[in-house]
Design brief:
- By secondary structure, this protein is an all-alpha fold.
- The protein has 2 domains: 87 residues, Uncharacterised protein YqeY/AIM41, N-terminal domain (Hypothetical Protein Yqey, Chain: A, domain1, Orthogonal Bundle); 51 residues, Arc Repressor Mutant, subunit A.
- Helices cover 76% and strands 0% of the residues.
- It has 7 helices and no strands.
- It is globular, with a radius of gyration of 18 Å.
- The relative contact order is 0.10.
Amino acid sequence: MLEERLNEDMKTALKGGDQARLSTLRMLRSVILLEKKKDVSIATLPDPDAIRAFQAYAKKLKDSIAEYQKLGKGDDVAKIQGELRIVEEYLPATLSEAESRELVRAVVSELNASSMKDMGRVMKEVQARAQGRGDGKVLSDLVRASLS
């Protein structure tokens, strides 16, 4: 389980004295605890829920990187990029552009989608099959292009 792996990695970082990694792992732990608070009946957060929470956190980090780059704060950008690399260790590998195109093509043909009216239906199926491994904007652009 992802939560157990996170706890073990926290112990390792603590023993190794890696403060930057430990800080990021603690943040991920707090993300998990916030998710668990939503449903107090669960003892261990299921991996799909943890992955979704980590992806949301990674998106916030990417947004922060973009903002700091606009402001010209290079030191902060480097720090957040390091944090993002640690978070990405816990995320599944993202789909390549070719894999994303193939997935969209397959879904469009299976659903016999032919117009923009089918976009919602196609996107729902594409997102389900991508299982969080695809960038929503990229997938949306590919679906839009294939339906136009």
